[in-house]
Records
---
Amino acid sequence: MLRIGLIGTGTVGGGVIAIIEQKKAEYREKLGIDLELACICAKTDEEVAPYKAKGYTVSTDADAMIANPDIDVLVELAGGYNMPRKWILAALNAGKHVVTANKALLAKHGHEIFPLAASKGLHVLFEAAVGGGIPIIRSLQEGLVGSTVESLSCIINGTCNYILSRMAQEGLDFDTVLKDAQRLGFAEADPTFDIEGIDSAHKTALLASLCSGHRVDFEKIHVTGISKITAQDIAIAKELGCTIKLLGIYNRDGDRVDARVHPCFVPQNHLLSSVNRVLNAVYLNCDNLGETLQTGAGAGRMPTASAVVADLVSLARSIDTGKRAALPMGWFNVENSATLVPISETSARYYFRITSRDERGVLAKITGILAENSISIETIIQKDVNDPGNVSIVVITEKVQDCRASKAIDAINALPEIVENSQVIRFLA
Amino acid sequence: MLRIGLIGTGTVGGGVIAIIEQKKAEYREKLGIDLELACICAKTDEEVAPYKAKGYTVSTDADAMIANPDIDVLVELAGGYNMPRKWILAALNAGKHVVTANKALLAKHGHEIFPLAASKGLHVLFEAAVGGGIPIIRSLQEGLVGSTVESLSCIINGTCNYILSRMAQEGLDFDTVLKDAQRLGFAEADPTFDIEGIDSAHKTALLASLCSGHRVDFEKIHVTGISKITAQDIAIAKELGCTIKLLGIYNRDGDRVDARVHPCFVPQNHLLSSVNRVLNAVYLNCDNLGETLQTGAGAGRMPTASAVVADLVSLARSIDTGKRAALPMGWFNVENSATLVPISETSARYYFRITSRDERGVLAKITGILAENSISIETIIQKDVNDPGNVSIVVITEKVQDCRASKAIDAINALPEIVENSQVIRFLA
């Protein structure tokens, strides 16, 4: 029997309780395991009242619940940083396993949490933290162990993918879609965390850690969000046979790790390009396995709760029949932070959208700067814009190192004819 | 330490040996497990000679190897039915776990193999048997346990998908592409097993068993292959915004199981429609998780070998640190065969392509027969064909039960104007 102490009765916590109630008998019969909700904990009496009424043991004192020897595993679904960090460390110190969906916490405090768990031989499971409904953590830890992941590209923020999909499908601009997404509940009132790529970076840090076998610190990941993507960028992408997606990217690079989050031009024949709206997807390229894609719901009450319950079932199976070494810790060295490839050393094909006054000689100056920086041009298109007197100049470069692309675009932005800072977006391939 | 006895040094067997050699040190260091190739067995001295030269213990006597107490797990990669069945049963009787990629054997003899393993508390792992590079078995057994699979549609035969993809992309007919596929090694000299859907049915039986929790017997699954799909069918599908795919299908239907294999019209906005060439894919609809798709290499030396090795790693992790109940058996009742929904009771939208002499009144007769069988017509298109004096009449029906569709098409085929048996293809949705 696995005795569960649950903190958080909100969206996901409530879903976890519902699934355990729904599946408890099936798990007992088919798998011989017993998931027991030993204590349900939330901040207020009001929050736990409905569960108390159903006969559950409830609490508003998380510390006491964690200290209780009758709990085997802490399921932390409260969200936030400070209290969950304290609870999880206390639970591990008290010899309890941990299941959480809190990617922000793991990305930020994983360097404390994972080593402690490893030293105690305890599990910290977090399938629900990345790509809710996609069993990607389990795939990386178990299904794909016969291969080494060479590269990973993922769409792991539903809000961003929803906004970019609707911009592409309806030709709308960013602010219009964001407002509508907020109205419909697909974006938060303060959307910064999502649209600036921070949430994607948390998840990318976890995936890159599992892929590389080294701890990848979230703070070291280069992040560019989607708030500066315009309807024009998306229209031009379409003309070029691409869609724009916010991607989390990992590449194996010798002993170093290339991990970053930024918008990308994705060719329409790539599997990721047709992953739309709130769907998430993880695309992997592996040495033995080749390419593989997993798509599914990235968030939402039941998909996320379902992933939490899958972790609880795994845990119950492991510890019911004899301890086995905790899995996730085996897969990356939690003590030492990986060395990341600086973004300036990465290479890509680039899209520059340069807005300039419509004056003679600008094109010559731009191509001159590109030539000075040894950047080969694949395509150059001049476009009229609604703004009279101005033009858009779109440049697609051949593959070039970021530092040269940056230097060139800084020089271009400094030209007197340039009206605003140029848009810079990388191609996925 | 997991002591492995391997039978079969062919494509996949050789790949397994290569991956174990490549990853052995990494597994020891990161996971604390040791995969030891204790004995490599093949039919002839010539086959095992290269491994003997490398210092491995080799054998040409599978029975003796299986009887050897120094073997913990039999890895059966020989292929075929009779000998592998005998070996696997002998291994289980001798208390050894089994890992195999032999879907045909499991589909045919699973009713002997699984109960024996269950009664002995042993594992029979077969990740490599379905969708080689896609960790779908593990997902169904572990990652998705928080949900119930309501329906599954999968592309799980690379040969068929390759042929259909090239027919669609190049407008070629079936025989031309098949010959080219044979020349290129994507189809066997005798392609019956693949193109008639038998291989897909083996895999669908396994997936339907895992989804339903009941043993689904391969022999009871309705199977239609792709050999009668014409370039014209594919062209018409494209006009209708669809691609034709050979699908393995599972639907939960109360206590019964709807499992079948047949070509389908798949709408181009469905995730499965862009899975092309030899790629495989499994699309699931789950109660809590919603929709999810996994795509990857379906076959090939290293993807398949990689899946076998993932099973060996799971096994080593389980048995190194204390026995745990064998997993797969928990998930379906191997004793009792599931009751299947007869194909005649299933419903779908239908595509009929009727070839008729170009005579007045035929359309009236056809629509009359459809009306008699209470079949509503969604679209009806008359098409000229190259054959002078004949026309093609394409009917798309609304959703109708198979028995009514069959009765109508039999009546249509019996009309004196009808030149050949009509083509009948279901829509996925």
Note: Residues 321-330 of chain B have pLDDT under 50 and may be disordered.
---
Amino acid sequence: MSLFSEKAESLIPYVPGEQPKDGVYIKLNTNENPYPPSPTVIEAIKTAVGDKLRLYPDPECSELKKVYADYMGLSEENIFVGNGSDEVLSIAFQTFFMGKKDVLMPDISYSFYPVYCSLYDVVALEIPLKEDFTIDTSDYIISNNGVIIANPNAPTSVALSRDQIEGIVAANRGRAVIVDEAYVDFGGESAVPLVNRYDNLLVISTLSKSRSLAGLRVGFAVGNKVLIEGMNRVKNSINSYPVDLLAQVGAKAAILDREYFEKTRLDIIKVRDQTTEQLLKMGYDVLPSKANFIFIKNPEKNAEYIFKKLREKKILVRYFKQERISDRLRVSIGTAEEMEAFIKALAEI
Amino acid sequence: MSLFSEKAESLIPYVPGEQPKDGVYIKLNTNENPYPPSPTVIEAIKTAVGDKLRLYPDPECSELKKVYADYMGLSEENIFVGNGSDEVLSIAFQTFFMGKKDVLMPDISYSFYPVYCSLYDVVALEIPLKEDFTIDTSDYIISNNGVIIANPNAPTSVALSRDQIEGIVAANRGRAVIVDEAYVDFGGESAVPLVNRYDNLLVISTLSKSRSLAGLRVGFAVGNKVLIEGMNRVKNSINSYPVDLLAQVGAKAAILDREYFEKTRLDIIKVRDQTTEQLLKMGYDVLPSKANFIFIKNPEKNAEYIFKKLREKKILVRYFKQERISDRLRVSIGTAEEMEAFIKALAEI
């Protein structure tokens, strides 16, 4: 018998976008927010850094849950908190999908989903996106044991409406439908208002994108009390305190500063739409984005070639060597200045 | 089919010690350090709180690994970093034990181990501690598929020597032997110096106890490069960034401040030994502790009764309703003043 478990021998892990350490790059590769976190977040964390770090943090994240529940118009028992939405997704896969087959997901979506399937013995039934990279909701009204959809989808940036999501949720009563809304604040319609009506809907969100807090690691799941209880059972069988004291404090402040959130997310939407317009003029194909990134295709040039050339010019974007999308690049929306530099670099290539 | 996975239905999670929110208690119930973190930790985190929180943290924790490797006299490839030693343990169970039977562990040990067994389909072979709560190392020289031992053991506080640990590791070549050293800095002998000689030894440690950083969530595994690679494969299939930016920075500073670490840990050892002496005089049975807690038994009074009475007096300790140890209390070592208050309260009960 091997020293390792069978699973540990065979896993092929997720590979995150590069985090260069020298700081000379324009980073448009990991969908981070180009704006800093709200000044109230910085202030709140600085105030919290002190003697209390010797104590374990609140394992329930009660204050944070309360603030997020208020923001969502729900109650604390509808909220699950984890170490970034990746950990929340991992726990959701364990709670709802582990050991099941025929779990539906798009063939092109967040590339961490297949990794969770492999880790938790889930057999996915991958549903091809349509030619235009949209989801045909009728594809999800078939026999299954669960559904997961990113909305807006990644790396496509394309979104379903709330009504379309509701159609899928309503058709799958008794089975968990997970909607991963990491990017919803940039123009999508959140499914959270449906949570009170559908006890099979779980919505996952994060502070990494629209709250500029990728460095702090806070994600949420929102759903019916029974679903959240199940997730807590799994979470408390792994690590009682995955969200540290400072992350709890910073996250709370971020959710409370509605004004800063509105301002920065609207700025990003504006820059995204301007960038899209410029790229369309240059002949690029750009999918209609509701996210803080765009998914683009040069009509002639090879995507990997452009990716490498941009890297030489100290601009990082994301290239996926994957069927159907290897002719495209995913480009995060930076500041107006960063996007100008990006457009200029593209023009030169 | 249920909405939940079969596992999520059946799990019985770990229950951590109470974290009261009102701050009026003397907390001797979760083995936290009574001293604040080093001033250099506070300073380093305050300096790091800023715009960089918008970016993902270094998924490799490279700088932190380097500092810890230097401290341990090893190289970076021997170090794994996780969100507290609980997450590290969880990943170690997945990496080495998942799906195996006959994994050896003491019958009385950290109560999270059986929870991991249940989550990851590990069939443990629980080896009874001897009558005096020590481990008989010869019990671990039998056919098995892995070994995990807390050293010092919890909640007993009793430790094996490095030579005794080496005996177990040497007899189990080809199978992972995990030594959980959460409490080793309070008088135990670490097995880390054996890591270069035994490719089956994994040592797990934490900054929550001897570095006063329970609130920051940083734990380590130290072992042969091949073991660490396996753990990274599992970790990167769950969450690329479980240790946030501020935790990485604070942890680095904590390891670098050797002087503060030495001073506080020696203080705790001193207070522990003084408290032990007083309790022995009062007729208590106190196991010989190498940890920052003691495991005590009143010769007459019921442990649960004392636990409740202490709680009324605003002193929290830990009581385990578990066979063989339900007549004992686990008491974390606080400051000299806190332990005086504890002794006084005991005398009154």
Note: The radius of gyration of chain A is 20 Å.
---
Amino acid sequence: MPPIPPIRQGSELPHTQQGIRRRNLSLVLRTVAAQGPLSRAAVASRIGLTRAAVSTLVDELVRTDLLVEPGPGQRSTAVDRPGRPGRPGSALALSERGPVGIGAEVGVDHLAACAVDLNGTVRAKAVLAGDNRGRPPEPVIKELTRLIREVTEAARTAGLRPAGLGVAVPGLVGRDARTVVRAPNLGWTQVDLGQHLGDALPPYVDNEANLGALAELWLGGSPTRPTPDSEPASESAAGGAIDAAADGTTDAAAGGDLAPRDFLHVSAEIGIGAAVVVDGRLLRGARGFAGELGHVPVRPEGPDCPCGGRGCLEQYAGAEAVLRAAGLPPGEGRVGQLAALADGGDPRVRRALRGAGSALGIAVSGAVNLLDPQTVVLGGALSRLAPWLLPAMERELRRRTADPERPSGASVSVSRLGSDGPLLGAAHAVVQAVLDDPASAPPPPA
Amino acid sequence: MPPIPPIRQGSELPHTQQGIRRRNLSLVLRTVAAQGPLSRAAVASRIGLTRAAVSTLVDELVRTDLLVEPGPGQRSTAVDRPGRPGRPGSALALSERGPVGIGAEVGVDHLAACAVDLNGTVRAKAVLAGDNRGRPPEPVIKELTRLIREVTEAARTAGLRPAGLGVAVPGLVGRDARTVVRAPNLGWTQVDLGQHLGDALPPYVDNEANLGALAELWLGGSPTRPTPDSEPASESAAGGAIDAAADGTTDAAAGGDLAPRDFLHVSAEIGIGAAVVVDGRLLRGARGFAGELGHVPVRPEGPDCPCGGRGCLEQYAGAEAVLRAAGLPPGEGRVGQLAALADGGDPRVRRALRGAGSALGIAVSGAVNLLDPQTVVLGGALSRLAPWLLPAMERELRRRTADPERPSGASVSVSRLGSDGPLLGAAHAVVQAVLDDPASAPPPPA
């Protein structure tokens, strides 16, 4: 397998003639992505360039398989999107055969990989359930590499070109975007994934909560897409944290058609993480370690936490704490088990989830008072437990964040992406890099 | 008195030939402000424009009294800054006779106004002590207007030109930057200062914690400047919250020569506020209400708070709570009284301040885990109480924010600006607007 080219995260294009051309290619591509299908004339009028200039740019984007422009009388399936009826004729749309972003996820109880095309559609996916706690990095990364290879090959077979690799991990990632500084639930410290992911190099590595929040920003406002062409999962994800994104939680989704641009994204797998998005940008912190909501004190004299503190949110709302409060043994399949038992009416599990919801509400109240976000989004595994967490959480928020301009306190919505958020965010980070600099995408075969 | 011209906060200069010229004027002025004194040639090489282009821009800045360029053999006093020995010859420096920013502050127990020149030097200052709680806006604004007029006239007498008015208030300010939405400690709601400050219009109004943090960003890295030309205070500020900035707390200051650009600024007058500065920019929140650290829950089942919550930080570390814990009656001069008693060794006051420090540490730990700031800065009245607050606060931070990369937890430094921060920030917001768009400053008399 040829190496996956690097992605240029936030690349600063040079201020040269060539840099301006690349910026304009991005402008055309992003305009079609946001508002397409559009004719060449419509693109020109929206971005304020001449039709001739736009036509040269469009020709290059069509030639490199980033845009398609079906002839009169044809209809592109790419334009058959919900709420956007396909128009006959020469309307530009994003290609379904061009670059794809490869995403991978190291979860505490699963591994996953997927390929996402420019339209945001998942074109291949592979999942491997299994407890990764305490396992050394090498065998885990070997299994992950196999999943990445599977989805990459599936994408190539479908005529797509992998444009880069994003990796979500349940831990703190260094500013180099490749080193896992610390992942307590895996037991990893200072693991350089750039070195380990040998033939899929160099990956862009980020914290799962950050990528979940970015997925919400990029994809959260639209209905979750089905995965018609996805590969079957490599192994059954029995009881694992990954489910089809279009599961029952979609009904609870409160988002509109526009994704919010100022929000606090709260997610969980085993630990509890958060990400602060301000004006469409992720707040990463001075060292890149922002978002550690799980270690915000809820009751300062509460139970000891492995972090060294006491009464941290994770001691009340982390998966282990909820299982303990419900009288259940720790183990695999925590979230699925809790959701099933709560759904079945188990009073101990429901009480434990109410307690977790209260603790979440207390910690999130502090964050809301400090940050004044537009809304709070529950994502990751928390979205599956939302029906039982939300009432207690919202009661605390009403008490602690209400003001005359917002009498019922800060609003909470539930991510439509569910547990797939981090994986989709990892793949979509690559897609965003292509939209930012189309010239960086791998060229079509000669 | 002629009206003070408006300041253009964050004005977007137009993309026209004139806009480019104004941007380049700003570039020259900011380069001299940051690195001066500099020759014309040195400015040209630093900003990458030709010497001819820079000379035209410099001529305009000298003509409008924004820059001075003493002839050979002369020395400008403006260049005699600490650590920057004045050089003889034609070195450009910021003018001491050009525009000044007028700052004003509505405090709960004082009113103040000042004039700050382009160098950041306070050129005039007036303070009026007195309890403003429960007073209607009109008489308070009338007194404030008098102070503003005093410092404005003093500045004009010294040959300076007021370029705008910034106003710090102890409450939430609307996105219009003129309406006090809610100031619980004054008892004000929906007070339009733009309308009330009739002849000093239109002011730029902001929350005191925000302006204190901006002052820290703009001025905090340099030693506090003396105020050689300042007017005597209008009335004695006996026991009030305003003191000379260069008071004893300067010894506790831990800042280096470079102000941090990612920090959490925690300040207090009666309430407790915070401001989050990320990459040199203030995080304002979706509604402009970010920074309400005083209502972060410390003990979720603690005392009722007027905000509707329970166990908020203000119930443990607000001035009233500390006075109550020390067995003292509520009243004026709280911070001064507490500092004097603690300094004298009063055990009840010291114990009360230790309790307040612990509560601050718990709430700030949560903020640090969420935001990963470079440092935490104690400002406003808290800086005077730092010697007694810090040990308990730092103990909580060590326990709750330590990690392998930072074993002693988040660092706390004490603002060198002290209680003057919000007032200086208000005046300096005007100076920043002049540095951003020098052409907007009032022209010198013909």
Note: Chain A is about 35% helix and 15% strand.
